[in-house]
C-alpha cells in the first residue's frame, strides 16, 4: 500500500480526540483525523487555520489509512466498549503487519487484554493507553499511561513525549507494562479521582449543612488549602466551581446544579477489579456507591420525609481557623488512605498479572496533566524512589508520621459528622480502613469460627500447625 505523509492518525473527533490531534499538530506532527460523522474531522482542520497544514482530515477510513506513513499508527478516541470493537473491525482489513492500533479512550482493561489477543497472529499490533487531563489536558498536555507489548512503544514514544504534560521538564508519559497494564492504571487513576472528588464533596457538605457557609466563603477556604499540602487540580477547580455565579439569577452556580452525579463506569471498573484482587479499596467503593445513591434523587426525597424527625446532635463544626484546619487535616489524611488503597490495587494487579508495574513512575506521570495531579503525588513518587519495597503507602516511613498526626482530625470530623447526621461515606470508609489496617488482632477469628460451624470450612490455630475442624455443639 502506498505510503502517506501523516506521522500518526486519530479516529474520533470528540472532545478528547480533536484536542489530542490539535496538540500533536501543534508539536509539529502531521496528523490524519477521521470521525464517524466526517464533517467533524474537516471542522477540526478548518476551525484551526494556524494548524491546518498539519491536520489531514479524511472522509473515509480508507482515505485515513492511505494518508498514514508506514508503519501506521492509528489512535482511537471513541467511547469504551462496542465503538472500539466496531472501529477496530473496520480498520484491521485496511492495515498491514507492523501497523499499530491504539485505544486511547477509557477502557475496561479486560477488553484491552481480549483485543490484544484477538490481533495476535495478524502481525498488526494493539496497545491500550490511558489518557487523563480532560479537554485542556488533551489539548496542551495530558498524562498518558501506556500498555501493550514493549516493542510497540517506540512507535508512539516520539509523539507522546512531545505532547505530554511536563512536570519539571519530565514528560508525564510512560510505558507501564504489557497488554492491559496501561488501561488498568488509568482505571485506578479514575477510582482515586472518584474518591478525591467524593471526599471534597463531603467536606463541602459539612461546610454547607454543618457550618451554613455561602459557597463564596467555601471557595476562599479551598483556595487557601490549595497553597499547602492539599494543593491539587481538583482543589483548585473546586474553588472555581464554588465561586461561580449564574449570570441570570446571580445565585451561586453550585446551588442551581441538580445533586445527581453522572458516571461513565471507570470508577466502578476500579472497585470491581480491586474486589477481584481481594484488595479493599473501600474509600473508592464508597465514592462509587455515593454517585449511585446520588442518582436516586426521588427515592432519597421520600426517605428524607420518612426520617425527617430522627434525632441528631447539633453539628459541632466551627467556621474559624481551628475548625477549617481540622477539616483540612482530615481531608489530607483520608486522601493518603485513598491513594494507599489505589496503590495497593495496582501492586496486587502487578503481582497477579506479572506486569511489574513501576509504581513510582506511575506517581511521577500523575504529577502533571491528569485530573488527580498534585504535589502530593511527588511525595508518593519519592516514597517509591528509595529502592525499598513499599508494602503499602501506609507503611512508608514518609507517610506514617503524617497519618499518625492527621488521623485524630479525621476521627473527629467523621464522629462529628456522624452525630450531626451529615453523610461522609468516603471519609468514614477511609478512617475505618485505617483502623482495621492498623489493628494487629482482628475479629476474623470469629468469622472463621462461624464458617467452620456451618460449613466445616476449617480454621488455623495460633498454637498448632495446619487447618483444623472443630466439632461445634449442634445448633
Ligand atoms: N472527556 C474527558 O474528560 C475524557 C474522556 N476520556 C475517554 O476518551 C474517549 C472519548 O471521550 P470524549 O472525547 O469525551 O467523547 P465525545 O463524546 O466527546 O466524543 C466521542 C467520539 O467518538 C465517536 N463515536 C461515538 N460512538 C461511536 C461509534 N459507535 N463508532 C465510532 N465512533 C463513535 C463520536 O463520533 P460522532 O461525532 O460521529 O458522534 C465522537 O467523535 C472515551 O473513552 C472517554 O471515556 C478519557 C479521558 C478524559
Ligand atoms: O477519564 C476521565 C478523567 O480522568 C473522564 O473525564 C471520565 O469521563 C471521568 O469519569 P466519569 O465520567 O465517570 O466521572
From TrEMBL:
It holds the Pfam family 6PGD. Gene3D superfamilies: 6-Phosphogluconate Dehydrogenase, domain 3, N-(1-d-carboxylethyl)-l-norvaline Dehydrogenase, domain 2, NAD(P)-binding Rossmann-like Domain. It catalyses: 6-phospho-D-gluconate + NADP(+) = D-ribulose 5-phosphate + CO2 + NADPH. GO terms for molecular function: phosphogluconate dehydrogenase (decarboxylating) activity. The keyword Cytoplasm does not apply. Its EC number is 1.1.1.44. It comes from the Bacteria. The keyword Oxidoreductase applies. It is an enzyme of class 1 (oxidoreductase). PANTHER family: 6-PHOSPHOGLUCONATE DEHYDROGENASE (PTHR11811). Belongs to the 6-phosphogluconate dehydrogenase family. Catalyzes the oxidative decarboxylation of 6-phosphogluconate to ribulose 5-phosphate and CO(2), with concomitant reduction of NADP to NADPH. Homodimer. This is 6-phosphogluconate dehydrogenase, decarboxylating. It comes from Jiella sonneratiae. The gene is gndA.
Amino acid at each position: 500500500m502506498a505510503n502517506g505523509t501523516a506521522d500518526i492518525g486519530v479516529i474520533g473527533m470528540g472532545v478528547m480526540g480533536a484536542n489530542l490531534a490539535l496538540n500533536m499538530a501543534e508539536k509539529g506532527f502531521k496528523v490524519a483525523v477521521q470521525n464517524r460523522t466526517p464533517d467533524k474531522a474537516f471542522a477540526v482542520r478548518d476551525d484551526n487555520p494556524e494548524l491546518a497544514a498539519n491536520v489531514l482530515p479524511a472522509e473515509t477510513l480508507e482515505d485515513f489509512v492511505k494518508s498514514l506513513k508506514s508503519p501506521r499508527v492509528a489512535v482511537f478516541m471513541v467511547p469504551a466498549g462496542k465503538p472500539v470493537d466496531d472501529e477496530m473491525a473496520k480498520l484491521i482489513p485496511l492495515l498491514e503487519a507492523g501497523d499499530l492500533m491504539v485505544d486511547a479512550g477509557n477502557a475496561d482493561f479486560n477488553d484491552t487484554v481480549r483485543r490484544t489477543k484477538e490481533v495476535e497472529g495478524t502481525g498488526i499490533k494493539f496497545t491500550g493507553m490511558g489518557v487523563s487531563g480532560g479537554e485542556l489536558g488533551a489539548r496542551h498536555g495530558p498524562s498518558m499511561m501506556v500498555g501493550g507489548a514493549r516493542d510497540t512503544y517506540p512507535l508512539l514514544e516520539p509523539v507522546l513525549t512531545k505532547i505530554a504534560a511536563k512536570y519539571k521538564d519530565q514528560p508525564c508519559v510512560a510505558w507501564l507494562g504489557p497488554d492491559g497494564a496501561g488501561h488498568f492504571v488509568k482505571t485506578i487513576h479514575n477510582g482515586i479521582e472518584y474518591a478525591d472528588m467524593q471526599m471534597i464533596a463531603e467536606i463541602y457538605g459539612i461546610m454547607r449543612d454543618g457550618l451554613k457557609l455561602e459557597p463564596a466563603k467555601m471557595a476562599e477556604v479551598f483556595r487557601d488549602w490549595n497553597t499547602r499540602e492539599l494543593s491539587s487540580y481538583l482543589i483548585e477547580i473546586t474553588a472555581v466551581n464554588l465561586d461561580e455565579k449564574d449570570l441570570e439569577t446571580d445565585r451561586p452556580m453550585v446551588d442551581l446544579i441538580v445533586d445527581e452525579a453522572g458516571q461513565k463506569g471507570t470508577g466502578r471498573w476500579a472497585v470491581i477489579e480491586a474486589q477481584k484482587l481481594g484488595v479493599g479499596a473501600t474509600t473508592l467503593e464508597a465514592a462509587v456507591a455515593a454517585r449511585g445513591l446520588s442518582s436516586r434523587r426521588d427515592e432519597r426525597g421520600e426517605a428524607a420525609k420518612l426520617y425527617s424527625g430522627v434525632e441528631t446532635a447539633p453539628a459541632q463544626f466551627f467556621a474559624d481557623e481551628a475548625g477549617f484546619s481540622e477539616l483540612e487535616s482530615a481531608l489530607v489524611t483520608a486522601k493518603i488512605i485513598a491513594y494507599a488503597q489505589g496503590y495497593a490495587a495496582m501492586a496486587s494487579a502487578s503481582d497477579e498479572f506479572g506486569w511489574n508495574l513501576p509504581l513510582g513512575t506511575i506517581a511521577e506521570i500523575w504529577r502533571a496533566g491528569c485530573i488527580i495531579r498534585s504535589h502530593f503525588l511527588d511525595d508518593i513518587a519519592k516514597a517509591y524512589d528509595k529502592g525499598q519495597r513499599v508494602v503499602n503507602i501506609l507503611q512508608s516511613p514518609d507517610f506514617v508520621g503524617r497519618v499518625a498526626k492527621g488521623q485524630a482530625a479525621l476521627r473527629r470530623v467523621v464522629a462529628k459528622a456522624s452525630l450531626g447526621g451529615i453523610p461522609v461515606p468516603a471519609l468514614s470508609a477511609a478512617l475505618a480502613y485505617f483502623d482495621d489496617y492498623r489493628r494487629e488482632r482482628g475479629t476474623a477469628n470469629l468469622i472463621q469460627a462461624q464458617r467452620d460451624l456451618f460449613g466445616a470450612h476449617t480454621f488455623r490455630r495460633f498454637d498448632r500447625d495446619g487447618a483444623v475442624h472443630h466439632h461445634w455443639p449442634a445448633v
